[in-house]
Design goal:
By secondary structure, the chain is an alpha+beta fold. It is 20% helix and 32% strand. The strands form 4 sheets. A 7-stranded antiparallel sheet has the order 1-2-17-5-6-15-16.
Length: 269
Amino acid sequence: MDFSLFIFVLLLITGTIWLVDQFILRSRRTSGTGEPWWIEYPKSFFPVILLVFLLRSFLVEPFKIPSGSMLPTLLVGDFILVNKFTYGIRLPILNIKVADIKQPQRGEVMVFRYPDDPSVNFIKRVVGIPGDRITYQGKRLTINGKEIAVTNDGQYDYPDRREGGNFVLTQRFQETLDSHRHAILNREESPPISLSEVEQFPFRDNCIYTETGFTCTVPLGYYFMMGDNRDDSRDSRYWGFVPDKNIVGKAFMIWWNFSDLKRIGHAIN
């Protein structure tokens, strides 16, 4: 069960018990009689569960990074915080937007529900916004006819290299999308895209794929997402565009990492 739905069910159960006791059962108890445990415990937990539900639904929600698709920006094991109201206020569970605040911008790191399975949350960087024409050829990104400049930032040393993990020669580059300067990774021997892994997805006709890359026009109400670890990320290149209704929020801070305490408090750019 989705954790948000689980919290909501607990909230309904404890809230219902609190209401029933407040307006019905309390008046029927004799003076000096204590509350039975099945009323006392839910009533005690109800305000805590309510607070957690409101915070997670409208303000901030924590997530853990499960994969290396956003290296080097986010490491496996990073615990991050996601702002839930930056991109608008949405009804919990239903994820229906009721108030617009700000639209996602190029370069922002966003958490969203995976289009193929909305019960799974993904995190990637916004590369294309509605109406953008995205071209990725020879591992160079072009947006609306303007090639995005990158600068070589040396070789990237994977965090698990010293633990005996496989090491793959990877180059690190600095890239700037609008006002967001961030690092990306590329492996020289890897192709820009694996055509055999490209799926059929809504608005697939908006894209043209070749052996050396692709060009896609982002439909209205959708976004094009890519991982910073460009050769080790399954993203919009393979499964398509992310609809606005799938947006969860904007990632803004690393709040914990058991393996590297120095990362605590780092802003996500």
